[in-house]
Design goal:
By secondary structure, the protein is mainly alpha-helical. Helices cover 38% and strands 6% of the residues. The protein contains 13 helices and six strands. The strands form three sheets. Strands 1-2 form a two-stranded antiparallel ribbon. A two-stranded antiparallel sheet has the order 3-4. A two-stranded antiparallel sheet has the order 5-6. Pfam families: PMD. One of its GO terms (biological process) is meristem maintenance. Keywords: Membrane, Transmembrane, Transmembrane helix. It comes from Pisum sativum.
Length: 362
Amino acid sequence: MDDVSCLLHLPIRGIFWSPQDVTEEVAVELVVDYLGVSQCEAQSHVRSCKGSYYKLEWLYDLFVQHKAASSWAYATITYLLMLVGSTIFAYKTFTLVEARYLLLFMDLDRCSGYSWGAAALVTLYRYLGDASMFSCKQLGGYPTLVQYFPTVGKRGENWKLADNCGLPRAMRWSYRQGVLKVDDLRPILDELTPADVIWRLFDDHRAWRQFDELCLYRGCLKWGDTVVPYLLDRCLRQFGYKQYVPSPPLDCMMATDIDVDWIGYHQSVIAVIRPTTLATTPSDVEDGYLEWYYCVSHPRLLPPHRDDPREVPVPVYDAGPSDPDWARVSTFIHRYLRHVNAEEEDPQFADLFEALHISRSH
């Protein structure tokens, strides 16, 4: 959340938003009531989206029309929906926005009470979970939040510290063509070295965005019907603390009082920082941490080109089938699916993906 706060200057304090998905019928009613669209046009547009969505291009045209007609209430809501749909709630197609997000702006006086930082983070976490699957080709959410890696984004050519010191930190970075596809990002992230990581990346930005202890909350975050784990005890060096062996991951399916935990975040903050002390160097860790890390980390997260590579054990979950014949079957199926760029949701490849999962379980 500290990343979101400093990069985008979005508020992280506030309440979570909890409404569920809406039907196509409700999507039609919403644009009629809150965007000033006729019933006929609304039905036609939602039908063309093949679901409870609105097209961003259509929203832009609608915004221009309301602005020209001085219909400021409609124009404001249309603009806000278009804004979040193209940034923090960006759909994987980058052409649609979910209709349910219009519910956020039914009462504009309540907007400042939401945790927009958590909203951006939860949405990105959800799409990063999809991107961890080899069949995923596109990253949704707000990719600007990963642009500040030096090897992913690039410094803006016209950015000057003296002129832009108070602006969101993301303004330092500009879009690098071609790196938002997941297949392009994977090798870049795999080849990161310690020199590519800025451990205390916002220390020079605190004059404009102070650190909020809420960022040290450990628990679950939610937005709408999406719930994700937020495990700050895994990246303590970013906040100046010695890293220790973190607690086991949370089971968000068992979480029942997320809103209560969020309000009483002080308890989790104490639990996070009690086992550690302030670090003297960025690489400072507690005894036993590195041994634990090398036992559970994925080998490809280490730089692939080294004169003297470290011995890193392959985790059990990544070892593959134990039987040699099943391993060959799994390799052949996997190789073919990658060759044809198969997506797991494609019906024509359903049997092959099922065979792949069976082979990996033996």
